Amino acid sequence: MADMTIVGLLLIVVGVTVDHPAMAQRDESESIELDLREGQVYGWSDYITVLTGPSYGSRAECDSQAVVRVDFSGPYKSARFVLQYNDQPRLWTFDVSDSPAADGYGGDPGLTSNMAETQIFNKQMRVYSNNLPGYMDATIDGDLLIRIEDDIIDRNSRLSLEISDERLEWNRIGSKKKGYINSQFLYTLSGQSPMYGEVDYYIYAGFNRVPAGTFRSGSGLCKASVILLKAKDVDECMEGTHDCHPNATCSNTPKSFRCQCRQGYVGNGRHCEDEDECAVNNGGCVHECTNTQGNYRCDCYDGFMLHDDGHNCIDVDECAVNRGGCQQICLNNMGSYECRCSADFVLSDNGHTCISNKGSGNCKKQEHGCAHICQETNRGTICQCRPGFELAPNRKDCIVTCSHGNGGCQHECQDTDNGPVCTCHLNYLLASDGKTCIETCAVNNGGCDRQCKDTQSGVRCSCPDGFTLQPDGKKCLDVDECRIGNGGCDHDCRNTVGSFTCSCHKGYKLLTNERTCIDIDECSINGTCDHTCENTPGSFWCYCNQGYQAYGITHCGDIDECSINNGGCHHTCKNHLGYYECSCRAGYKLHPNKKDCIEAEMCIPLKAPAKAVLTCNKVGDKETCGLTCKTSAHFSSESEDTYTYSCGSDTEYEWTHEKVNATMPSCSEHVNAPSLKRKAQFKFSADKCRLRRRHRERFQDNFSRALSTHELSSLTGLSYSEIEQRRYPCTELCQVNYVNLRCGNRPTRTKRAKKRRGRRRKGRRREVEGQSGSVIVAEFELQMNPEEPTDKCDVNCVRRRTEKKLRRTVNTLRKSINREQFFVRFAGTDYEVMRRSLKADRGVESICTLGQIMVGDKCISCSVGSYFNMESGRCEKCPSGTYQDEEGQLTCQPCPSEGSRSATGIVGARNVTECGGQCSPGHFSWDGFVPCIPCELGTFQPDPGRTSCFSCGGGVGTISDGATSFEHCIVRESCSAGQYYNVQGGQCHRCPHGFYQPRAGQNFCVRCPGNTTTDFDGSTNENECKDRTCGGEIGDFMGYIQSPNYPGNYPSNVECTWHIVPPKGRRILVVVPEIYLPAKDDCGDVLVMRKGASPYSVTTYETCQTYDRPIAFTSRSRKLWIQFKSNGANSQKGFQVPYVTYDENYQDLIEDIVRDGRLYASDHHQEILKDKKLVQALFEVIAQPRNYFKYSSAESTAMFPRSFIKLLRSKVTRFFRPF
């Protein structure tokens, strides 16, 4: 840094000795000039600091870079940057900001909130706001972007940018491209307090780069001048060189100054005269208004005092102080007061003291009748009035006038023949007493903080929802709804002024009632997981099918099992999608364990399954075995009595069944006849057909009881013994599986049938022809279960008996119904079943109980060593590590574990003893089953049930025999995770790209699943495996782009390019729900959207930062070229960005919506733009408006909150109905 400072000083010295135009202006203004082709700096100023001097460029193009700092704490309050482009502008050629951390995309990494930024990128100017409160209302993208100006510069053009406090002005010299922005969200150069950071008066400008660093740079800017215009920035007000009137204020402006008469004066600022406020509406004074120089004063009449508002007059209660001077009684009146005396006293002439009424003279006897003063004269007594009163025509009473206490009027008084008449000042109302004036809402809002309403008794203050009225009846205080019951919010409640907002935890979304949070079912969105998705509260899990491994959180890739110790194969391993296969070299064949290889010309001896007999004989090289079940046992898979297997040269030494290659069947001793099911239906008449759930359930119970022995006996009149002899009752072996009720049609009755219906039974309700009612159809299924076979009645006999019982039960039920002797209870009432309404299916279904399978016409239980699979409906052998020693079971029992090692028995283990049938890891035998021997020194075996062990290789030995892993091999050096040991070289190597190894001490690396690979060699876990495929779907109407490996971290040094070319007459709308790019690698990972591949084309969007808040914007060009590039420094989740194309006739409407800050103002609105389902629904309507009719009004209300619908509806209405 010191060297750079010295270089900068030398350049400045060179500039002084050269006759340069910039130096000629030094006396008139302070400026510097940077030559970015030659790497020179000319000029000097105390308020301009060259932080990074321009280096000597390539001369072929203007690519030298510099950074300067401009100080606004002195006399200069405006800086002009004149930029001269002699070459084609490329990328970032100019960037000026409040912060030295400006990186070309707006926003600041925590240094100061007062950071605005203006940049020249290619031919485009972009203006970004700071992030002071309310900044979103000034932006056009819901983020920081305030303004974009296309084609602001070009080759051989000059641009002037002038920056001052909260103002930006631009002018392309020699063209009409000019404009300005005044905004509090621009440069804060007058000491504005930031939300975070320190107050400063600096701006930082980068030339052919951004101020933050050289990682974002450009070329084409050849010369730049930084000018602090002294004449322009002279503060005439401070120096006293203005010509404002003494009674005016002077305000400095960037180009001049402004004069404005002070309050109380009128004029143009250079000439000001006193304003007579009393001339208009008495200055607002209710009594007297006195004009003063530059102001005015309100005064009140005697008996009144000035209100706090400085205009109204209110009564003074004189009696409150020393009784107003009254000797006895003081009575206060509006604007005055009156003294009175008690009994036996009269008021003296002075109106204050009281004298006794006892004495001589008519006046003392109170017989004079005078209201005020009684005067005795030679002609008798006369009455007089006190000042301010007039004697009434009766010559005794006194009438008050406006000159006494303003006539009792609070505001204005007018004398009439009938006395004073009171009126009120403007915006006041006369009260019912005719004297008092009531303040209205027109005067200072009635003193109310919020809402004011005029009433007969005066103003009434109220508060809107979210506020409460204070005891003074005027002020409103915000209610913190979150303090009471969390505001009704399910999760988080945030209080706001006058309201509150609810938000949900991650993985939940807010319902349209804006209170309730429900879990987001991510699994309901297509493509969430490659294979199986399981939704969980607030999240979800992705699972992969067998043979696949998860990567990138939601994706599944094929596992290359062959890369893991050769898949455990003895000879050759071949990987397939979802599985792998072991194969053997010539002269060998695959062992039944599917991994080991044995001699090809060898038949593996057969073992007889449980309760079976195996008889074998051998002729030459061919061996034949017959398999039969023991007495009283049957095969549980086929109906054959004997199975024949053969093995020899003609079968390639594989055991082959005479029909198909199959595993040996098992035998079971538990055999029974099947249960029989038959469906039927009948009808009955009820008052109404109301099929409620509880009625259905009770009906089935009632119907089952009606079929019992007791009910049939009572209905038919037969004894129990007679019923038993006929063998038709539905006993414990008979059951009703289900009853379904439905409404049916009433049949037409014949006269004969009506006559027969005359027979009734007491206590029962029957169907009566002509009565109003409904027909109910009962569909049911009867099941007759078999008895256990005996020596006298075998399985075939039991089946015949079961068929007969079921048939007789149905026939008996039919006879009872036809004789009108069968009743059913429905909804608490007994109903007679309609004659001849029973209809039974002819077919009878045979079923076995769980744990049995149908073999022929018999039910045979699954044998020991097997279980009944509920999904397949078959008997299957117990898998390795389990056993089953009973027949007809639904599961297998786990084998007992040996210490920390899981048990690994044979497939189809019939008892605990066979659990240990396979050789354990570290052991082997000729067939993989006990008895086993440990692996020799220098070998190991990690799998159970093997016929050999793997060699450590390279003459390496093991610590002891029975080794179970390569880790037990004695090697020269121990390899850490991410490495493998090369036995030939005797050293550790890092796992290559596309492989990883999570364990230490291994001799192999695991290949990444599917098409994934690693960013670097030496990877230690599967999370480092990433898919480098650029994701997305590009369509004419809708689509999306997606970073590689999303939602997992994207790979390093990847480059993706997408092209969106909508159909003719359509434009592009893009929504970025969230984007995660690392902020610590100097913007090495960038997403850019522009018109074409050329870096100089019109840019719509560009970012290198993380934003978890959504933004929406329209493309600045008809088509979009999108590129994502990452470097090798860091990685993040990336992005999934949807887009939609729309009719360009709606361009103004769409832009009006996406540029409205209210679209992003609330957390709820932001969550809508993150909800894939809701965005999909919005896009469908935007792309093809006719899809709007797919959603009813109720559906729309259920999907979106009222505030969101209100926002869209107002804009759509204004667009289609502008007047």
TrEMBL record:
One of its GO terms (biological process) is animal organ development. Its main location: membrane. It is a single-pass type I membrane protein. Residues 1030-1142 form the CUB domain. It comes from the Eukaryota. Keywords: Calcium, Disulfide bond, EGF-like domain, Glycoprotein, Membrane, Repeat, Secreted, Signal, Transmembrane, Transmembrane helix. One of its GO terms (cellular component) is extracellular space. SMART domains: CUB (SM00042), EGF (SM00181), EGF_CA (SM00179), Ephrin_rec_like (SM01411). Pfam families: cEGF (PF12662), CUB (PF00431), EGF_3 (PF12947), Ephrin_rec_like (PF07699), FXa_inhibition (PF14670). This is SCUBE1 protein. It comes from Branchiostoma lanceolatum. The gene is SCUBE1.
